[in-house]
Amino acid sequence: MATPTASPTHVPDLSTDAVSHILASCTHVDWTRCACVCRLFREVVRDLRASCSSVSAQALGLVTGPGPLASRWAHAPDLFRALLGCLPNLRELRLPCTPITDQDLEIVSNLLPKLAVLDLSECQAVTNRGVRCLMAGCPLMEELIVTYCELIGYSAMLVARHRWPRLRILRRQPEWMDGSFVTPWGETHTYYADGGAPTATFPNEYTAKLVHRLQRAPSPEMGLVP
C-alpha cells in the first residue's frame, strides 16, 4: 500500500488571511522583499503597512545579529526613508539605544506627520537640532522620550512644551527619579520628568524658625544685610 503524500501548496492556493497571518511576524524589510513575489503578497503588504500604527527598530528589520543594539544597527538612510515612507498612519516609533542621527529625525519629520509617540532613549548622536526638526513636521506629538541623550539640552525641552500643545510626557530623566522626596532635614525635593531644575520646599515650622533666626542675626556672608 502506497504511503499518501501531501501535495505541495502554491502561493495562489493561499488565502489573503493566511498570507497576512504569515507576514505579520516578519520585519518591514522582509515585507519589502515579499511584495516583489506576486500580486497577492504585494496587496497583503500594502494593507499591513496601511494598518501599522506602532513599530520598533527590531520590527523594521534594521537590527541584525547578536550583541549590543547599537552595534547591530544595519542602518542606511535610504532604506530608513523607504521603510518609513510606506507607513502613512504610524503613530508610535521606538528606536532606543540606536545610533540614529539628526538627519534620521529629519526623515521622520518629513514622512510621519501623524507621529504621537517617539522613544529615543540612549540615542547618543541626537542633538537639539533633531528635536527642532521633529517640531516642524510632527505637530501631534504626545510623548517624547530622550532619557540619557547627552546632547539634548533643557532649552529644547522648553521650546517643545510650547510647540506641541498635545504633549503629555516629555521625559529627559529616568522614570524612577520622578516625584517628591523628603530629606532627613525636612526639605521636600521635587524632580520633574523633563529634567528641569528640582524644587525644594520646607515644612512651615522649619521655614518660620529659619526666617526668625535670620531676621534676628542677619549675616553679611549670607547677603542679608541691606
Question: Can you walk me through this structure?
Answer:
This protein has 226 residues and is α/β, with parallel strands linked by helices. It has 3 domains: 15-51, no CATH class; 54-172, Ribonuclease Inhibitor (Leucine-rich repeat, LRR (right-handed beta-alpha superhelix), Alpha-Beta Horseshoe), CATH 3.80.10; 177-220, no CATH class. Helices cover 37% and strands 12% of the residues. The chain has 9 helices and 8 strands. The chain has helices spanning 16-23, 28-34, 39-51, 57-60, 77-84, 102-111, 128-137, 154-163, 204-216, and strands at residues 54-56, 92-94, 117-119, 143-145, 169-171, 179-182, 188-191, 199-201. Strands 1-2-3-4-5 form a 5-stranded parallel beta sheet. A 3-stranded antiparallel beta sheet has the order 6-7-8, with no helix packed on it. Helix 1 (16-23) packs across helix 3 (39-51), helix 5 packs parallel to helix 6 (102-111) and helix 7 runs parallel beside helix 8. The model is unreliable at 221-226 (pLDDT under 50).
Strand order of the largest sheet: 1-2-3-4-5
Share of helical residues: 25-40%
Write out the CATH superfamily name of the largest domain.
Answer: Ribonuclease Inhibitor
| Proper CATH architecture of the largest domain | Alpha-Beta Horseshoe
Radius of gyration: 26 Å
Terminal-residue CA separation: 112 Å
The amount of beta strand, in percent, is: 5-15%
Mean pLDDT: 80
Number of strands: 8
Instruction: Please outline the major beta sheet.
Output: 5 strands, parallel
Give the C-level CATH assignment of the largest domain. Alpha Beta
Overall outline = elongated
